[in-house]
Amino acid sequence: MQSSDKPSRILVIGGGFSGLTTAVDAAESGAEVIIVEKNSYLGGRVAQLNKYFPKMCPPVCGLEINFRRIKTNPGIQCYTMSEVTSVSGGPGNYDVTIQRHPRYVNDKCTACNACAEACPAMRANDFNFGMDKTKAAYLPFNQAFPQQYVIDAKACKKDCGTSCKEACVYGAIDLDMKVETVSLKVDSIVVATGWNPYDAAKIETLGSGKVPNAISNMQMERLAAPNGPTGGAINRPSDGKPVQKIAFVQCAGSRDENHLAFCSYICCMASLKQTLYIREKNPDAEVSIFYIDMRTPGRYEKFLNQVQADEKVSFIKGKVAKIKKTKSGDVTVTAEDMLSGDKVEKTFDMVVLATGMEPAGAAQQLPGVNYIEGFAAPGAGIFPTGCSRNPMDVSKSAQDATSAALKAIHAGKGR
Amino acid sequence: MSDQILKPDLEFTKEIIAAGGESLKKCYQCSTCTVVCDVTSDRKPFPRKEMLYAQWGLKDKLLASPDVWLCHQCSDCTAHCPRGAKPGEVLGAVRKMTIQEYSSPSFMGKMVNDSKFLLLLFAVPIIIFLFQLFIQGHLTHGIPRIPNGQLMSYSLMYPPTLYIDTVFVPVAFFAAFMFYKGLRKYWTAMSANYPAPPRKDVLTPLAETIREILKHSVFEKCGVSKDRSTAHKILFYSFVGLAITTTLAASYIYVFDYHGPYPQTNIIKWIGNVSGVAMLIGITMIVMNRFKNQEKAGTGSYFDWFFIVVVYGVGLTGMLAQILRLANIPVLGYPMYFAHLVFVFVLFAYAPYSKMAHMVYRTTAMVFAKYSNRR
Amino acid sequence: MDKKLALYICKGCSIGESIKLEKIETVSKNKMKVPVVRNHETLCGTEGIAMIKADIAAEGVNTLVLAACSGRVKYEEFDFPGCIVERVPVRELAVWSQEKTDAQQAAEDYIQMGIIKAQKGDMPEPYLMETVKDILVIGGGVAGMNAALQSANSGYKVVLVEKEASLGGFSAKLYKKIPTTLPFKEPLIVDVDLEPTIKSVESNENIKVFKSAKVEKIEGQPGQFDVTISSNGSSEVVKIGAVILAAGWKPYDATRLGHLGYGRFKNVVTQVELEEIAKKGAIARPSDGKPAKKVAFVQCAGQRDANHLPYCSAMCCAASLKQAKYVRQDPDAIAMILYKDMRTPGRTEYYYKEAQNDPGVMLTKADVSGVSEAPDGNLYVEMKDSLLGSSVKLEADLVVLATGMVPATADDPVLNLQYRQGPGLPDLELFNGFADSNFICFQYETRRTGVFAAGAVRQPMNMTEAQEDATGAALKAIQSAEHVAVGMSVHPRAWDLTFPDPMMTRCTSCKRCTEECPFGAIDEDEKGTPFFKPGRCRRCATCMGACPERIVSFKDYHVDMIGSMMKSTSIPDDEDEPRVFVICCENDAYPAIDTAALQKMKLDPAARFITLRCLGSMNLVWLADAFSRGVDGMLLMGCKFGDNYQCHFAKGSELANYRLGKVQETLDRLQLEADRVKLVEVAIDEYGKVPQMITDFVDKIKEIGPNPFKGM
Questions:
Q1: Among A169, A294, A390, whose Cβ lies nearest the Cβ of C341?
Q2: Hey, is the C-beta of C50 within 8 angstroms of any chain A C-beta?
Q3: Mind giving me the DSSP string for A136-161?
Q4: What is the pTM of this model?
Q5: Considering only alpha carbons, which residue of chain C is nearest residue A74?
Q6: Which pLDDT tens digit goes with each residue over C269-281?
Q7: Whole-angstrom Cα distance, residue A337 to residue A359?
Q8: Which of B321, C283, C388, C516 could form a disulfide with B337 if both were Cys (CB 3.0 to 4.6 A apart)?
């Protein structure tokens, strides 16, 4: 760490907000950092958010600064579309292999969009949770970093020949790209693999994912985002009707031993934030929030007060445990209003399920890393950070990731 | 309700826990249970509030409410409970405690629900029936003697009017009286909590309730344990059938002076046998359902199993006694009949304290709920 | 450095088809005196880069103007160490966002501005000074001790200042703590066990501990702070590189909670007092020492309450669950927790479940409205809106109030900085007195460079969180000490080697810079003359924007540079064709514009974009210069300001706005309409709105009519 030392080499797995923060903070402290990101872009979940709570500021703002820190720091190397396939050795001496999946677009790409224009095939846009489509040759989103196109080979039409390749005058399209294996030697590993939205289809009491206008909170982020499927208009998926009456169903899967036993930390604040999306866009819209406990710890209370002061927003203490679609596409929810002690059944244009965060380790675990209930556990030279180790929000992740940077640097000392 | 002073009672909470509600402390009041419950009313629904009262040991609120009996333990709540608090089981425990609370004498309630006293409970009818054998001279050195040489008939063992009825008629009166006492206390307690019923007429609610029970219309709404409704219906109607059988038998003897054994073609045999088989089928289905839904709904407590075993006992011994009589195997037949009498005694004599009592408490609660305009 | 310029124009991405290069090349060569001018089909391709590298080697060019795409892309390709690289986003601003007819003029203007910028700029040379890297930690609680250990173990010397006679802070006052490892199992309370930590701090040769001590003052700047520490009557000055503020918290003054019985009844105590009671042995009530059998916990006592603490202290719900277990050490006693919302976020939920799974721990949601006297020295806790009834009361023999955390910085600067702008961290009223960051993404930001807050003084948090927080703060402190040692800025321009270099001979001591610097980097001497403390500087150049004498410069950024760029821009002769400057922040507004261009959205041809480090560096002289040249309007695009400001330099856009308030004078002097200048707040994701914002402004300018100075 003292500038005379040999720099620590740190592998950061995951290029979401936590991973980026660890990477830049470690690199700005003299470490050499390698980021391995499975997506074709950096930024992770945060890139999919419309705004942050409680500041209501756009996440790309902070990402832009961090990208600039990456651009100006020679100590950071990024592998996108890559996964760690093996880890051996120990602190100060890890051998890691990573697999780089083909992007089919090389570094010559200038993001000129010619390939996408030429491409005849469409694919469901996973960035927008399938709510719209892109060409099979596409830029993940308009402020993606790196600003480099990707080709989704699975979506390619077999008979299109090579229209994208012909359209690219820079020779950036390389349809023969293969999976590459890269071997690395690092001193320590930071696990920042983040989280996945809990799959609402598993929640029987909330419609098992079969109610089209009961969307997840992450889908809501995309609906509200200017680069989302509707350009920021909050219209319901089934028929595009602008949403006038909306309900938020808290703890959709969280604090539930049948699903996620823990509290996902972010959902209360996220729903309050999304309430503001709606209320700012539509002064007549009515919002109902069904909750068990409103969890707005610390100074987030102010944000709760702000939303509570809005008379078009009502809070109902009671978990929704029944959701049905009506013929017109509306959604009927049932809950007990615990303070009055009566069951209520209300109908809304759209319902947002505040689905929780399932740690990435629940679905896919990294070699050499221990997990407890899907959450990554620390090891001698292995430092989980952010939502891969505990449910937390962006600010906590940013803080946590900075702390992980120091721990990772320490592990590389004394080699 | 203004500034009512609540009296949390740790002991009462512990009692519910001991009575089979061990999961009650897991409830964190989300109200999933009340929402998934299709049986509860929309106004002041259960079981969320009962879970809270149980956690706080608020005896008055729990035991003087019809709501715990409106629950038919479908276990939808238990299946969907996010914390594994099993409201269905907790309410079951509370019902058991309601029976214990109102049944008198109270020591009986405790004994019936405590496995320690199981042998004693059975010892009572065994002694009574052995004594009957003794005074008939059927006991030699304490060992029952098989009446032999004649066509096998259980009337030879226990002549119905003299022996059977002298035991069971008082038992029936005892049970009925104890039920009456208990229900009166229960009704009074509920009336204190839900005063000034707007509907003065009890008969209409009673009729409605009976209609509901006959149709099992509430039970039909269950989700997770749908099959329980069918099972319960079969068992319920088997009891009805057996009640008819008993009534017929009594009228044969006392009105027509017509004594058994009756030929297998007699209507009484038809009803009795169909009901007996139905009883066994019903109770077997109930047991199977319990194991099937074990994970989601739990298997129940001693209280439940006591009742299940007794019903099994009554049904099996009854059917077997008949088969053995027809097969003319007195060595097994007479002991089987003896066992049958013991089980029937246990079923009826302890009915005010056992799960059997749910029949009258639930009916009462349902009537009260309608009467007090609860729903 | 002797500069030799080269201009490279890329023809790729439709630039070649939209723009006639010959004219630009001729002008650049002849008028602008650029010695090397070349173009290439694909400048970012291997051949293009090779061409540039060849020129660097053969021609000795070292100042490169790359007229191609935006600097936000192709940064790896266009990286030429040792050279000044000026990226001119011709593709975005002149081609993709312009109609063909407007492209040529735009390209000429932008390339010309790029050349001027390159001509006027210089290679950064870091400000180097004698520095130390020792770290001062204020506060010897869990956060402070951990920060000290983390820094010391990283090889840095640490000075730890604790106000009490012993280390441990608030944690030392606890009877037990919540276990820190999952799964939570009985017993749910474990020993705090601070001794090993205290021992390792006190025995660490890199850590010097001052107890019963106070930071009297901090003078100087990061890398060379002079910290005066007083301890037991004597004082000492130590040299410090960076500061970690871990001064912790104190409980809210419960005497203000009379409505909850505190002060009126002896048997109403705070959570903190219950810790003391528990430490003495069985839970006994204060009035008569009888064992407490019915203990009511009133959550959010004086919290989430506009009359007291408006925020939630985040840890009290779990703390009351823990204290309920204290009560339950007596098997006959009950603990009744009355909450507004149970807040046990994340996996603390498991603790809630385990602690609750005890028949003697009873919980209900309730709004406790008061505490009154009951028989036998007991108390009634009156509740509204409880799940047990809308208006009910409970009898308790002891009532515990979960009063909240008040940060040490709420009414004491603690740091005692000898800064012209004051002794504490500014803006703390935005955070209810906590020394918190305003940035979601950057939690260790403060407006005092080299000072990082950690633990409960930063945000309400529990012990485990405080430890993590302290580790992060240690990293930031180390980073800051290291950066200042090599003359490099810290976040957000953590790569920047420039520094403000004022020409003091022309200073009029007007103090604008000292007042406006968002980071308090500029002090004044006795005569009121400012002197810059580069170690405190974040290179936002707000001082450069503030200075009416235009004397503050950076090697690669100064008033004359931007002014000259503006002067070089074409002014259309046609009265119907206005010229408007859009001055935008490079962090948010420019990326928004860049994104609009990427999506091929059209930007008004009247506009010429000039990016600034921060809108705070906008100097009013540029307005005067531009208007006197005939420019028709100036649109300033900065970050959102106000309480939820998005400016990465905290106050930049707000200060630009404040300065605009004073621009009227200039406009009046020129007899120009006030509407010719406008500031708009633009967020980075508002690329969809930016084109219309510009067009609206241009339309407004058209409505006002041409600048009378046009053509003069």
A1: A294
A2: no
A3: SEE-SSTT-SS---EE-GGG--GGGT
A4: 0.95
A5: C76
A6: 999 999 999 999 9
A7: 31
A8: B321
